[in-house]
Amino acid sequence: MKNIVIRLNNYIKIFYTVLVVLLIGCKKESVIMDQSILDPAESTPNILFIIADDLGKDAINGFSEGQIKPTTPNIDAIRNSGITFVNFWSYPTCSPTRASIISGKYSYRTGVKWAGDELDSSEMSLQKFINKETNETYATALVGKWHLSGSNSSFNPEVFGIDYYAGLIRGEVQSYYNWVLTEDGIGSFVSDYTTERFTDLAINWIQKQEKPWFMWLAYNAPHTPFHVPPNEMHSQGNLPDYMEGMDETPYFMAAIEAMDYQIGRLLDSIPEDKKENTIIIFIGDNGSPNQVAQSPYTYFTAKGSLNQGGVNVPMFISGKGVSRRGNDTNLVTSTDLFATISEIAGVHVNNINDSKSFKSLLTESIGGVRNFQYAEKDDGDNNLWAISNGSYKIIENENGTKEFYNLIDDPYEEINLLNRSLSSSESNAKIELETELLNIRK
């Protein structure tokens, strides 16, 4: 009997020893799995957001608008490997577009309605929101044009929760070769070509990052002044210095090509494994400058207007998490980039402020996330707003005057339907748009 008890005790000891070993082994395995799941470098994409300044559909490949196009192999590659959002709306000028993206709000809520308006520092920025909701997962940087601080040339955008800022605080340079670079709130005159210097700053910052990064790269190209970029960056030939009265178009195209050249250099600097884990978003912030607007747009329906030539601008998205190719016709606005980029970064958000995430469209050809697009302008003399459901569009002035267009039959807004009697379907569409406009602006 005693031997039986001894053997049972030994068996029990062996059983518990094996059990402890198995539990320890399982615990180690589960910790390794959790680390793999939670490792942001493996599961979270880098985000490269590129803004071109004053780039309309008529000035880039991929659209029927415009007859003269620049040579842009790098931007073309972004477009060809991803999605072209053909119904993307911005605002008529740069500041409100940038404010809508960084805040996720319509202009009348932030007060940034025109170029040079100031964004209040109390606004929750896209960068700050992402890191607040993801426990500081991302390193964030904004390089290039800011233009959300009025005439304040010493402002530091890092107060918005951006880890690093370097670039052009004001909206326009006097010369692409002589301008003020602001870094850490301190300005200094530099003679480097702006497009190249911004790219250098972006490359240097990205190469230092050890965790997922969000780079907002805002070129001031191809915004005026018209200039001659370094010869190796463009294909427009031996251009003389621009003088008033000359044809501006080749200078405008050269600036776009130089930007494309630098985008290529930036992408080449990113190691292949990091690039494969990077999503790229490229947009124009408003229509092309009035001097170089091409048919079907005109001087009066390009930059600065609420016509399609002023607000319906390029957006291409490709890279990590983008499985669709070709054109997408869903209604999207610049405001929607706040929620979309947040969701890409891992924030569980579909709608916030005036922003609706269209992340689902990167992988699925489904119904749109919004039924209406909205934009506005207030340049001090004219206060207008526009709304569209994709088929019809209203442009309304504060003074009560209205324009009403059928964008299917008249995509470039040549026939104001209010100059004649409306059909029943047109009347219903007008009432629907007016109702939604009241709802948005209430």
Describe what this molecule looks like in 3D.
This protein is an alpha/beta fold and 442 residues long. The protein contains 12 helices and 18 strands. The strands form 4 sheets. The chain has a 10-stranded mixed sheet. Helix 7 (194-207) packs parallel to helix 8. It is globular and about 60 Å long. Residues 1-42 have low confidence and may be disordered. Belongs to the sulfatase family.
Task: List key phrases describing it.
single chain, alpha/beta, Alkaline Phosphatase, subunit A, Arylsulfatase, C-terminal domain, 2 domains, ten-stranded mixed sheet, four-stranded antiparallel sheet, 12 helices, 19% strand, globular, Arylsulfatase A-like enzyme, Sulfatase
Radius of gyration, CA atoms, in whole angstroms? 26 Å
Output the number of helix runs.
12
The end-to-end distance, rounded to whole angstroms, is 90 Å
- For the record, the count of structural domains works out to 2
Secondary structure elements and their pairing?
Blueprint (H helix, E strand, L loop, with lengths): L1 H37 L1 H4 L2 E7 L20 H8 L2 E3 L2 E2 L4 H10 L3 H4 L15 H8 L5 E7 L18 E5 L10 E5 L2 E5 L3 H14 L5 E6 L30 H21 L2 H5 L1 E7 L23 H4 L3 E5 L6 E3 L3 E2 L3 H8 L6 E2 L2 E2 L16 E6 L4 E6 L3 E6 L4 E5 L17 H17 L2
Parallel strand pairs: 1-8, 1-9, 2-11, 3-12, 4-5, 4-8
Antiparallel strand pairs: 2-10, 5-6, 6-7, 9-10, 13-14, 15-16, 16-17, 17-18
Short description:
The protein is of the alpha/beta class and 442 residues long.
